Write a sequence for this structure.
């Protein structure tokens, strides 16, 4: 029986004419979103005019139900317009599965549902980059307001919304900053697979994130939200309709996280090529795997919590309202059960990227592979047992404090494993100070400060003093931006040659690195001092003796933002003015992702998936002249 | 590809594939494995999702803030609750039977269809209860948990029912196509028959969901 393999013949399935005409792309998606929004709004308004609704939700001038339904129907309309409903409806009618959407063709495939993991990876990179820019702009507004110790720029209310937007954009969209672009693009290649396990779900996670981002930005039309990224009750329930944008945004991000995590785990568990055993899985895949587990288990708690908050706001339930027998403290517990694993969802992929890049530029095998994996697993497991340290001053039973203080301090031990692997790898190595390697060192410096200040904060007496101060801001910016942010930018320099086929200018890159590193530290080190001096978060009034320090921080922050724009400049310069075409393996890496040709073929390994039983992605002990240990997959041309 | 090859029955028999060779058999086995892992992960995700409602139930009940946990006049309609849970349990039994009958022709279809019908009946029972109960979502904490938990539970049920419906619809269409073979149609050896049907995974998820539903029923209907 000469059955054709699906990866070779599925393109022969012709699309019906009407489908070609309608297209199902971003424009039909936007049309669907608008139609859905209008329908949802009118349904919501119709429901709110019923006598029953007046009975359950008296004394309200807000159209929360209408807005929540409008957003929900808008998202559904958007997805239908993008073509996400075609496949499920077809399957419901018993039609055969089709595996591919927009995998070939020109730039147009980047504006629609594509089942090619590499297209989705690039979509993520651009999408996350855009929201990173938006979050950065909000940070500039915050620093501009804090140039003065009284509100003179945007005012206290708008200031809260800007703080909220900055934090929610950064923490919401950057949960996928590494898994979205880099894991989607490279994990299948690293493990010798042709695609992700569920390619449509992969595409869905990206477009859900983009829809969520638009919903969040629309909050400015509905009065914003005053709660910051935590959305604490009872302020959540009391806020204007802009709060609904926050709720829908984070709920959609949560759904996107669950699906992204599930897809990653299934891909790594079931689609590894022969020889890619658990003990030989690339370290970045391990970090992705542990992060994905956290996403699958922690994010549903957030979704459930936000749905309860939405019900409280829209139909008058009493989950979190004391007047109706609910409890705001319940929200805070449920939120942080998600919230602390979320911190490691942000940090762990950065660990993976750093340890993946390090051996390449140290020209030495990764030291302490098992130690690093144990560190990832330890961090992942323990991240579920520390959440109450966020509530040390919020009414926690005093007897519980020592446990959560200790668990928080102990989580620094598996984190230390990662540093051990870092130091062991660079020990007596032949380091090449390329731009990605510089970012690796910067990560170590920054994350060490962030981690150490975290141990300080976990101490209950210290926490009681510093809670809600700028010290906390400095701590988590050192861990998230200093950790994830620097790993993310380093990975852009490292992986752009494979993803786009050109190298970023090294000279501009080094200048950008030093500018970013110095201005980052000039921004956030003084913030520790501000916190110790008692400067509180989320307020526009502060003591006059802190003005000078705040102005130093603001100027450094402007320069930090400018240093990020240098990265954009470098991309444009390297792409347009001085294009250096990248070879298949410009870094002479042993990783499988560098053994495939550039650009990577649609199926990664067109003829046959590689036999990786004799393959070692960190085999830098073998002289390169001997051909290394990296077998070229058949047809890969490497 | 010749027509007789297209209509040839699919079989897993054949030469053992070489390492790295992605034969239809390998692809099918890998696909089944992927669905199986995905079902278990979704079960884990659903556990944590409903854990948030379970935690709310336990926390608010034990706190009983200002004595507003559950006023005396707030009580679910037990008879509808019994109908709901009986339908759920029977549907789980039906899907287990369907799963065990795989490979015996179309013998599993009846049991899977029964699971679908029973699942839908459970949802209808829950909705009917909403229309008849004497309390609304604003009647304090218990009412909130009841409406929220059961409401989102039946939403997840609908998604799971969709998964089982795909199994039934695909089988029904395949049987119909086999009775009326004709040229020019997409045939099933590509690509659908290369993919697993997924009944194992769907059955696992449904029975797990029913387990969560029974726990929910015990808490919101039986615990006073």
């Amino acid at each position: 029986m000469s059955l054709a393999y699906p990866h070779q013949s599925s393109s022969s399935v012709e699309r019906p004419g009407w489908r070609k005409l309608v297209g199902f792309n971003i424009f039909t998606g936007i049309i669907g979103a608008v139609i859905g929004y209008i329908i949802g709004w009118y349904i919501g308004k119709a429901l709110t005019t019923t006598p029953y609704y007046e009975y359950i939700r008296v004394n309200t001038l807000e159209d929360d139900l209408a807005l929540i339904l409008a957003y929900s129907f808008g998202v559904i309309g958007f997805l239908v317009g993008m073509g996400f409903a075609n496949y499920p409806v077809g399957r419901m009618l018993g039609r055969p599965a089709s595996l591919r959407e927009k995998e070939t063709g020109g730039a147009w495939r980047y504006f629609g549902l594509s089942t090619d993991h590499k297209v989705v990876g690039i979509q993520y990179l651009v999408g996350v980059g855009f929201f990173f820019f938006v979050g950065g702009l909000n940070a500039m507004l915050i620093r501009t307001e804090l140039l003065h110790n009284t509100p003179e720029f945007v005012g206290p209310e708008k200031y809260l919304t800007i703080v909220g937007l900055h934090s929610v954009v950064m923490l919401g969209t950057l949960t996928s900053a590494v898994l979205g672009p880099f894991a989607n693009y490279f994990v299948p290649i690293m493990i010798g697979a042709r695609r992700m396990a569920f390619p449509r779900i992969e595409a869905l996670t990206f477009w859900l994130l983009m829809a969520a981002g638009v919903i969040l930005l629309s909050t400015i039309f509905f009065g914003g939200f005053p709660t910051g990224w935590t959305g604490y009750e009872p302020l959540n329930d009391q806020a204007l309709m802009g709060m609904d944008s926050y709720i829908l945004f984070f709920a959609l991000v949560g759904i996107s996280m669950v699906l992204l995590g599930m897809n990653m785990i299934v891909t790594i568990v079931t689609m590894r090529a022969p020889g890619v055993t658990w003990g030989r899985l690339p370290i970045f895949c391990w970090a992705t795997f542990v992060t994905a587990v956290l996403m699958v288990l922690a994010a549903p708690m957030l979704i459930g919590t936000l749905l309860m908050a939405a019900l409280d706001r829209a139909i008058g339930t009493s989950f979190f309202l004391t007047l109706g027998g609910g409890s705001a403290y319940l929200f805070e517990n449920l939120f942080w059960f998600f919230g602390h694993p979320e911190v490691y969802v942000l940090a762990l992929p950065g660990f993976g990227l750093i340890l993946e890049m390090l051996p390449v530029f140290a020209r030495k095998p990764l030291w302490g592979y098992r130690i690093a994996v144990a560190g990832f697993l330890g961090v992942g497991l323990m991240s579920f047992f520390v959440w109450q340290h966020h509530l040390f001053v919020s009414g926690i039973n005093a007897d519980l404090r020592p446990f959560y203080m200790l668990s928080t301090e102990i989580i620094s031990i598996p984190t230390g494993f990662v540093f051990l692997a870092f130091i062991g790898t660079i020990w007596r190595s032949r380091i090449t100070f390329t731009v990605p390697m510089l970012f690796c060192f910067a990560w170590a410096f920054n994350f060490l400060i962030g981690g150490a200040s975290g141990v300080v904060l976990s101490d209950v007496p210290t926490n009681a003093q510093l809670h809600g101060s700028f010290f906390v801001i400095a701590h988590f910016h050192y861990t998230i931006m200093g950790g994830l942010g620097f790993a993310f930018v380093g990975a852009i320099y490292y992986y752009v040659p494979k993803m786009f086929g050109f190298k970023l200018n090294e000279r501009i890159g080094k200048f950008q690195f030093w500018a970013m590193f110095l201005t980052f530290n000039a921004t956030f080190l003084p913030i520790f001092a501000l916190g110790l001096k008692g400067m509180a978060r989320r307020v526009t009034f502060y003591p006059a003796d802190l003005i000078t320090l705040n102005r130093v921080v603001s100027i450094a922050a402007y320069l930090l933002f400018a240093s990020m724009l240098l990265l954009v400049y470098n991309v444009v310069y390297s792409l347009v003015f001085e294009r250096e075409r990248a070879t298949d393996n410009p870094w002479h890496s042993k990783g499988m992702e560098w053994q495939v040709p550039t650009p990577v073929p649609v199926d990664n390994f067109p003829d046959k998936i590689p036999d990786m039983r004799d393959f070692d992605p960190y085999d830098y002990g073998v002289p390169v002249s001997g051909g290394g240990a990296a077998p070229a997959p058949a047809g890969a041309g490497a | 590809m010749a027509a007789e090859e297209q209509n040839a029955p699919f079989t897993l028999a054949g030469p053992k594939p070489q390492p790295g060779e992605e034969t239809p058999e390998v692809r099918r086995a890998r696909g089944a494995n992927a669905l199986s892992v995905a079902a278990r992960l979704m079960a884990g995700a659903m556990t944590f999702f409903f854990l948030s409602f379970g935690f709310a139930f336990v926390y608010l009940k034990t706190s009983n803030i200002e004595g507003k946990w559950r006023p005396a006049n707030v009580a679910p309609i037990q008879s509808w609750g019994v109908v709901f849970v009986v339908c759920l349990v029977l549907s789980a039994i039906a899907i287990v039977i369907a799963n065990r009958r795989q490979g015996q022709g179309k013998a599993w279809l009846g049991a899977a269809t029964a699971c679908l019908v029973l699942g839908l009946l459970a949802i209808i029972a829950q909705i009917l209860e909403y229309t008849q109960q004497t309390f609304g979502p604003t009647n304090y904490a218990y009412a909130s948990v009841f409406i929220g938990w059961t409401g989102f539970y039946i939403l997840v049920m609908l998604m799971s029912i969709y998964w089982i419906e795909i199994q039934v619809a695909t089988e029904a269409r395949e049987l119909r196509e086999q009775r009326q073979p004709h040229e020019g149609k997409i045939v099933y050896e590509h690509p659908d028959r290369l993919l697993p049907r997924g009944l194992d995974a769907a059955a696992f998820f449904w029975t797990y969901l029913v387990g969560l539903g029974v726990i929910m029923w015990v808490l919101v209907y039986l615990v006073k």
